[in-house]
């Protein structure tokens, strides 16, 4: 049985290479197809991952969950998502992304339906933890696909454009979840995204493709004459599990640096995604829809800047760390603005949420791309999963930590903790200022 599953998920085999005229015609079409399908697919993943936070206050009121209970659900999801991202990353590097990503979206849809039908804390804790695990099947196959269809010198710009899937999915989920809950009840914040995910799963299975070689096309390095510095002779050699995990990731000091930085970047990012709506409702007078729109503003704030900063990082020879550092600094002052803005001026809070979104999403994207820059394209999923694991640990820390601080002290104390995390991220990014793609 296990062997059958492994064979079904196995990468698509190479087929004889097509003629030069066919290559020139088909390559741009398949590149767009991969970019488009992974973009829409990952956008849909977000609808079934971040739909808990916009309605967590309402779920707590309906089922008598405390802040600690809500924080535990957020924390366990972040932990399982991090573990899933790492494990699924290693699996995705040895799998067909078309099947891998589609199955993950199908599973998360089923778990969303189950969560909506349940009304017991421990069942919710288990289901949302399981959802975090299968959500790890989203990003790694995207990284594998884009890494095989787009070369080193275009990664910053390409991933910057693709990365706005985070913003669109993350922004829409706040509106979809809050409106569904307001119209029909909190359960529909999970039913509606679940239906969309089922449709997205079918779409991915039909539309996404595996490597260029599986379509009779040459590797992208050959097509664009753009080889990684030390991989011109062996850029298509498949790696063993030991090479993927130990040599390319665990013994790679650059991957460790980017992973640790990502821990603090995710504290910053998810503090407003997980707790922003609740914070605005409890301290600034926002209602259910107002809390949902704060997530939309945060996410959409990063669309233009992510594309721009990805392009800038390419123009500065791949110095992703330098660009990330310049983006994190303004975030510190935006959080100070939220802390000092008194109730009754929620419009100012919305502006500051948008400003944080403007500057946080370029580093979120660039740290992942930096990981790709310092590892083999055959280990993209594993490296991304490892960096993502640390990000999820950061989300876990803030999910539980901010709940404790807000409950036992105040929201002001919780915001000071975020400010400290921002300063640590700035300090660590200094060490990545001069780093460029290896070689």
From TrEMBL:
Keywords: Membrane, Transmembrane, Transmembrane helix
TM helices/strands, residue ranges: 100-123, 186-206, 254-272, 292-311, 323-340, 346-367, 379-398, 413-435
Subcellular location: Endomembrane system
Gene Ontology terms, MF aspect: glucose 6-phosphate:phosphate antiporter activity
Gene3D superfamilies: MFS general substrate transporter like domains
Pfam families per the UniProt record, alphabetical: MFS_1
GO biological process: one example: phosphate ion transmembrane transport
Domain named Major facilitator superfamily (MFS) profile: residues: 34-439
Keyword Isomerase annotated: no
Bilayer disposition of the protein: Multi-pass membrane protein
Entry keyword annotation includes Disulfide bond: no
GO cellular component annotations of the record: endomembrane system; plasma membrane
Similarity remark: Belongs to the major facilitator superfamily. Organophosphate:Pi antiporter (OPA) (TC 2.A.1.4) family.
Name assigned to this protein: MFS transporter
Organism (species): Leptospira noumeaensis
Origin organism lineage: Bacteria, Pseudomonadati, Spirochaetota, Spirochaetia, Leptospirales
């Amino acid at each position: 049985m296990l062997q059958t599953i492994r064979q079904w998920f196995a990468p698509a085999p190479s087929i004889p290479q097509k003629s030069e005229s066919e290559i020139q015609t088909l390559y741009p079409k398949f590149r767009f197809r991969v970019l488009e399908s992974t973009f829409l697919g990952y956008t849909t993943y977000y609808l079934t991952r971040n739909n808990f936070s916009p309605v967590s206050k309402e779920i707590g009121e309906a089922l008598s969950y405390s802040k600690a209970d809500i924080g535990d659900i957020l924390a366990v999801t972040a932990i399982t998502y991090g573990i899933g991202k790492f494990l699924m990353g290693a699996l995705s590097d040895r799998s067909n992304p078309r099947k891998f990503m589609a199955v993950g979206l199908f599973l998360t849809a089923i778990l969303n339906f189950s969560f909506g039908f349940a009304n017991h804390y421990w069942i919710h804790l288990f289901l949302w933890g399981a959802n975090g695990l299968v959500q790890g099947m989203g990003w790694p196959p995207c990284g594998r696909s884009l890494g095989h269809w787009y070369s080193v010198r275009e990664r910053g710009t390409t991933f910057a454009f693709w990365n706005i899937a985070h913003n669109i999915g993350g922004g829409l989920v706040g509106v979809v979840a809050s409106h569904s809950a307001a119209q029909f009840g909190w359960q529909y914040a999970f039913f509606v995204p679940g239906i969309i995910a089922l449709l997205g799963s079918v779409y991915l299975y039909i539309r996404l493709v595996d490597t260029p070689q599986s379509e009779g096309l040459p590797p992208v390095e050959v097509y664009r004459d753009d080889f990684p510095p030390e991989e011109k002779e062996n850029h298509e050699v498949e790696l063993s599990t030991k090479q993927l995990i130990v040599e390319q990731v665990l013994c790679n000091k650059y991957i460790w640096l980017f992973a640790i930085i990502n821990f603090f970047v995710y504290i910053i990012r998810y503090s407003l995604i997980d707790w922003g709506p609740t914070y605005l409702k409890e301290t600034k007078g926002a209602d259910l829809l107002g809390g949902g729109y704060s997530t939309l503003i945060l996410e959409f704030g990063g669309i233009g800047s992510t594309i721009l900063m990805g392009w800038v990082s390419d123009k500065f020879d791949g110095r992703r760390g330098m660009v990330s550092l310049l983006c994190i600094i303004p975030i510190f002052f935006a959080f100070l603005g939220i802390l000092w803005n008194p109730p009754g001026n929620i419009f100012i809070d919305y502006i500051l949420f948008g400003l944080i979104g403007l500057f946080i999403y370029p580093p979120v994207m660039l740290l992942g791309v930096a990981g790709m820059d310092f590892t083999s394209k055959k280990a993209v999923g594993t490296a991304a999963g490892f960096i993502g694991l640390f990000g999820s640990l950061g989300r876990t820390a803030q999910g539980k930590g901010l709940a404790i601080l807000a409950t036992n002290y105040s929201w002001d104390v919780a915001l000071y903790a975020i400010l400290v995390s921002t300063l640590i991220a700035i300090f660590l990014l200094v060490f990545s200022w001069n780093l460029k793609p290896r070689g």
